[in-house]
């Protein structure tokens, strides 16, 4: 996923809650594991780091099941997140 369109905090909260809604009908432990696995497998480290930071400050807007699921994942190693280059440093397309 491109970080340009998917990493705004409101969008991440919405996406995480949608994933949570999908798994809600399953038994609790299976739902927690399913949400965590989906986010681990499909979210970029930058996206996960942003939602981790949001949870650390209270997690407003996230469903409790989603917060519980995300807390089961190991923290994203911040040093492994690539730094976005400014557009001016990108090569021009001809």
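-> sequence recovered:
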């Amino acid at each position: 996923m491109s970080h340009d369109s998917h990493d705004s905090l409101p969008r991440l909260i919405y996406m995480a809650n949608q994933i949570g809604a999908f798994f809600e009908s399953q038994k609790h432990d299976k739902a927690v594991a399913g949400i965590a696995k989906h986010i681990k497998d499909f979210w970029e480290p930058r996206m996960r780091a942003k939602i981790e930071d949001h949870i650390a400050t209270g997690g407003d807007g996230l469903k409790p099941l989603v917060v519980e699921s995300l807390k089961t994942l190991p923290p994203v190693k911040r040093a492994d997140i690539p730094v976005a280059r400014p557009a001016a440093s990108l090569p021009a397309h001809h």
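The mean pLDDT is 88.
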